[in-house]
Write a structure and sequence with these properties.
Strand content: 5-15%
Largest sheet: 6 strands, parallel
Structural class: alpha/beta
Radius of gyration: 17 Å
Shape: globular
Oligomer: single chain
Amino acid sequence: MGKIISLVQLKGGVGRSTIATNLAGTLAESARVAIFDCDSPQFTSSHWLKQRRELFDIDEKLDLYKPTNYRSMATQLLKLKREYDFVVIDSPPRIDGFTRLAMACSDLTLFPLGPSAAEIWSVEEMLNTIEEVKKVHKGFDGRILWNRFRSHINSAKQNAKEAKVSLKLPEMRQKLGLRVSYSEAMSEGLTVHEMDDKNARVEMWSLASSIQRILFNQKHNNKLIKEVLLNFAKPTKP
């Protein structure tokens, strides 16, 4: 069975789609990968893959899926988990049926986070939802992924230190730097693995390798039960 990786963040502009496409493209170098684009109305991952298909002839198993609603998303994920090695979900910048379902289905949920107070607050807003997810997903594995991180800036290091205490979520060891190659790769339909920026290539390769090790070593098998997932994902009445 394939593994599901979701990128979740309430705040826009944190690099969620950039990481999703780079991760999917890097994994697709040696595996069957599906991108599940729930990021309406931008659908950035979809535009990236369209650009990739039009400009390059790359030998890879990398496919795109766009659910019409969270119910169809549940049906598709159950199918894709049997057909692909990895499914990468690019979730919307809000807590809705798509986001709740993504976290409940995922073997690994990454929370992209820049070292700013606003982005840290956005993850704090999700902490109650994360606790709800853990009730239906006993092996929930959610981790902070620092993005656009400048290790030489004192405020960045301080914010990261404070976030570790307030969010109480483990961090990925890898931190992605503030590099123009990420935006350039996105606009060209490429991954940084296919660019000239050696540091960015190493960062993304290291991240993809680490994620594969985490998933391989997981002892809990997330058994997806459609009725349970739909019941959890459906919007609650105010």
